[in-house]
Amino acid sequence: MILYLVIPAYNEEAILEHTAKKLKEKMDNLIEQKEISPKSKVMFVDDGSKDLTWEIITNLNKENTLFSGVKLSCNKGHQFALLAGLMEAKKDADVVISMDADLQDDINVIDKMLKEYKDGNEIVYGVRSSRKKDTFFKRTTAQMFYKLMRFLGVNIIYNHADCRLMSKKVLDELENFKEVNLFLRGIIPLIGFKSNIVYYERGIRIAGESKYPLKKMFSFAMDGITSFSIKPLRLILVMGTFILIISIAIMLYALIVKILGHTVAGWTFLTISVWFIGGVQMISIGIIGEYIGKIYNETKSRPRYIIEKVIK
Ligand code: UDP
Ligand code: MG
């Protein structure tokens, strides 16, 4: 069984050598124990780094063919770097595990994942059992995000990032998802197949800094939501209906106040108009939203089904 580790790296010169050393130990060990084939590799994907990342990768590859590299022409972002690596790796690999270059995800998770794979799982999700070592801010924002996604009806795995094992079969299916707003965490569960979860402790970043500043985190979260859920559009319709109901109450109130004679001229008409028109407009936008939602889903042209097995 050929295993490829796919590691996206963006400006990771501070930590890459350390990462390579750790991963080499792990891989050598696994090869020795005959868990994986000697043709297995660690594949770094340089996501258009501006520092010495690519030079380090080339040197590693010269020293040892365990290391291979893919260089993107410019910075495309984590998700695309990862996808590029996965698609490249599946040409030779039977199984691929993806991880971050900073090894915040405990590498012993690799053994656990391989065990699950041997038990017949095609996808194994790495889940952070605790995030004690993340900053308070990162932890709370991340957890809010997972909860919001759940609320919006997106099937994502709580506290699972991009540390996962996928078999070649799964990667072949992933290739059929043609969307350009890439949010792998949302897509992989859609692929299906037998899968399981393994837990690990998330560590701290020992060198270099996070490549996800607040701005990127926010845009990543927005992408995740808007690429997977049309619920926000439907909420407009719900709000419109709600406002229209309120407008009826306001109508009654305004008429009663008028009958009792406590109003200035024109007040009743204006009040009723504002609420009623508001409700009607919101509902109209919501209905248009429903159609846009349909167009949105059609343009994604995701595969409508995936066959796991055929027996004849
Ligand atoms: N990364 C990337 N391209 C980017 C930003 C990040 O390939 O534009 C990689 C980065 O090198 C790392 C992984 O994505 O391997 C996760 O980034 P980071 O550890 O900075 O994120 P955090 O752990 O802080 O969420
Ligand atoms: Mg990290």
Keywords:
7 strands; 2 domains; binds magnesium ion; 312 residues; Spore Coat Polysaccharide Biosynthesis Protein SpsA, Chain A; binds uridine-5'-diphosphate
Can you give a write-up of this model?
With about 300 residues, this protein is of the alpha/beta class. It has two domains: about 5-210 and about 305-310, Alpha-Beta Complex (Spore Coat Polysaccharide Biosynthesis Protein SpsA, Chain A), CATH 3.90.550.10; about 230-300. About 50% of the residues lie in helices and about 15% in strands. The protein contains ten helices and seven strands. The chain has helices at about 15-30, 55-65, 80-90, 110-120, 135-150, 170-175, 185-190, 215-230, 230-260, 265-300, and strands at about 5-10, 40-45, 65-70, 95-100, 125-130, 160-165, 195-200. The relative contact order is 0.11.
Secondary-structure blueprint:
Elements: E1 3-9, H1 16-32, E2 41-46, H2 53-63, E3 67-71, H3 78-89, E4 95-98, H4 109-118, E5 123-130, H5 136-151, E6 160-167, H6 168-174, H7 184-191, E7 195-201, H8 214-228, H9 231-259, H10 267-300
Parallel strand pairs: 1-2, 1-4, 2-3, 5-7
Antiparallel strand pairs: 4-6, 5-6
Bound molecules: uridine-5'-diphosphate (UDP) and magnesium ion (MG).
Magnesium ion binds at residues 100, 102, 104, 205, 210.
Concise overview:
The chain is an alpha/beta fold and 312 residues long. The protein is built from ten helices and seven strands.
CATH homolog superfamily of the largest domain: Spore Coat Polysaccharide Biosynthesis Protein SpsA, Chain A
In total, the number of strands is 7
CATH architecture of the largest domain: Alpha-Beta Complex
The neighbouring-strand order within the major sheet is 3-2-1-4-6-5-7
Q: Which kinds of small molecule does this entry bind, naming each only once?
A: uridine-5'-diphosphate, magnesium ion
